[in-house]
Amino acid sequence: MIPRIHNRGKRTIGLLAYLYGPGKYEEHTDPHLVASWDDNAPDPGRDPQATLKQLRRLLDQPVQNVDEGSRPTQHVWHLSVRNAPTDRILTDEEWADVARRMVAAAGIDDPDQGAGCRWAAVRHADDHIHIIATLVREDGYKPDLDNDAQRVQDEARRLEAELGLRRLNSGDRTAAQRPTSAERHKAERTGRTRTAREELRETVRRAVAGAANDAEFFDRLGASGLLVVRRVAPSGDLLGYKVALPSDRNKDVEPIFYAGAKLAPDLSLPRIRQRYEGQEAPDETAVGSPQPRPSQARRSATGAVWTALLVIGQDDDGAAAAQIADVGEVLDALAKTSAAHTRRELSDAAFAFERASRSHIRAERQQDRVLRQAARDLVRGGPALGRGEDGAGTAMVIDMLFFLVITAAAWHAKKGHAQQAAAAQQTAEHLRAAYRNAAVAPLSVLRERGRQLTLPLQRRYSSAMREAVPDLAQRVLDEAGWPALAATLAEAEAAGHDVVPLLAEAASRRELDTAESMSDVLVWRLRRLADLPAAAGTDSPAKGTRASTIRSRQSSVPGQGSPRQDRPAPGR
Questions:
Q1: Domains of the chain, residue spans
Q2: Which residues contact 310 (CB under 8 A, 6 or more apart)?
């Protein structure tokens, strides 16, 4: 159940005409009164003798009874209450009870004192009602509407439980402002999948990702194609900004601008500055500061995400909140620079995680530079090609981001942040899909190399697996991804690593039980820990030609792990 308080108005008759009319964007079927302040109020929908003017006159009567100077400038209050498409259809009597409880919760009506405002609830569709009220009480005083939006939301949660409706998560008023119905309908008319407000929010967030100062942030905004207006004080100080899509115009063909704070609470200029406050912009033109390659940026981001995982696991809420907020920047940067086959899911992941990046816990940003630098390097590295080292590096960083997002969801749930936890879980599903797209090619190469390992090497790595992770070894050995893990062990051993302790360390980094493919997870962890290329090199020790150079704790140990027929990587 979604209650939504609309902007206040001046014309009672205008809103009534809409509620009882045919509708602008959806068909109004059988509009009629389901409840009101007075059981005998006229209903222009069902009573042929009743008129809109009669109902308007009765609703406005308390407003007209007070001195003109004491009347509210905007005296018309409007609330819509909509159920989910999957909810059962409520009866008129049930909607009437919903309306009475909503106006009581908001402070519009006070049944106990009998001194509320006049109101009416109109139903013109199966799934929702509209409530109109005039904001002068019967005793001439104005209603107390402080925090009315939160109160009706709280009442909606109670009604969902009582009426057996879909249960929505309680909010904490840190979410970005929802697009209005007019904005949504305009997007539909113009063929956009998202409203102008949502497109602007996504573009601004990508401009913020890893930015080191105001100049860089505004340069990125300009390069993105947005119309940008800066708000400057008489002293010349920059106070704020607003942005518009060039194609989004009003009836006078003027651009429709949105201030940063209207896009999201953390996109006001002061809040953006908090991210890079005290951080000097690196001199990227200096000798020794080359632009990172996309694959290098992804490998660095993988390490930064692992560092963030450790911070979130500690008992420091401010530091954890900062890391989670900066994960949003990494996701925005990764989506901006991703290859075509992962771009959609990564963009959706970044869009979903935006809600998880904010809460009432203040982010302590003194120690959160690593993730922001990772986001910066991703942007500077530019678009990935999606194959070879780029593709494998993308799979590696997505793999680690998946674990971090799941950790963020658990952290939010522990703190009672229901909407943020749900958003993080939704992000994880998009990352799961993006991972499958990114990992299939590099893992296929590794699996082919693993299948070509000599039988003694296959047995050696099976034995190493059993020694390092005895509880999980058989599950890993039975997975389709085991040959890829065996090939990675061969590369690590050729690089001089003792594979048993390396495997044990990789397995201990985070739990593995919830992974769809533990072998995939271990592949990426081992390649990072052993400093191996994300993608397999052109020359491999896997064919046995360099087996004599491989250091091992055992030269040959009977074990299991015979080659398996390859099939698509299962992902997470």
A1: 2-163, 191-276, 296-438, 452-549
A2: none
What gap in Å lies between CA 462 and CA 561, rounded to an integer? 6
DSSP string, 2-61: EEEEPPPBS-HHHHHHHHTS--SSS---S-EEEEESSTT---TTT-TT--HHHHHHHHHH
Kind of pairing between the strands at 128-134 and 76-82: antiparallel
Sign (positive/negative) of CA torsion 271, 276, 277, 283?
Answer: negative
Closest among 444, 427, 304, 412 to 367, alpha carbons compared? 304
Q: CA end-to-end span of the chain, whole Å?
A: 33
Q: Return d(Cα 64, Cα 87) in angstroms, integer.
A: 41
H-run or E-run covering 524:
helix 518-529
Which H helix or E strand runs over 100? Answer: helix 92-106
Which amino acid is present at 548?
S
Residues sharing a CB contact under 8 Å with residue 123, sequence separation 6 or more, in sequence order: 31, 32, 33, 34, 92, 95, 129
- Sheet bearing 76-82, strands edge to edge: 2-5, 76-82, 128-134, 119-123, 32-36
Check if the beta carbon of residue 541 is closer than 8 Å to that of residue 547: yes
Count Cβ atoms below 10 Å from residue 271 Cβ, excluding itself. Answer: 16
Which residues have CB under 8 Å from 316's CB, separation 6+? 364
Q: Three-state DSSP class for 572?
A: coil
426 phi and psi angles, rounded to 5 deg: -65, -40
Q: Are 165 and 87 in contact (CB under 8 A)?
A: yes
For 219, the token pair is 């340069």
Task: State residue 283's pLDDT score.
Answer: 58
From CA 166, how far away is CA 71, in angstroms rounded? 40
Q: What is the mean pLDDT of the chain?
A: 87
Phi then psi for residue 559, to 5 deg, are -170, -170
Q: Which residues have CB under 8 Å from 309's CB, separation 6+?
A: 400, 403, 404, 407, 510
pLDDT digits (tens, 9 = 90+) for 323-367: 999 999 999 999 999 999 999 999 999 999 999 998 888 888 665
**Highest-confidence segment of 159-163, 382-386, 567-571:** 159-163
Beta bridge partners of 231: 240
The string of DSSP letters for 427-459 reads HHHHHHHHHHHHHHHHHHHHHHHHHTS-HHHHH
Distances (CA, A) of 467 to 448, 460, 494: 25, 11, 20
Pick the CATH number of 2-163 from 3.40.50, 3.30.2170, 3.30.930, 3.90.75: 3.30.930
Two tokens, residue 369: 């530079």
What is the pLDDT at residue 537?
63
Q: How confident is the model at residue 84 (pLDDT cuts 50, 70, 90)?
A: confident
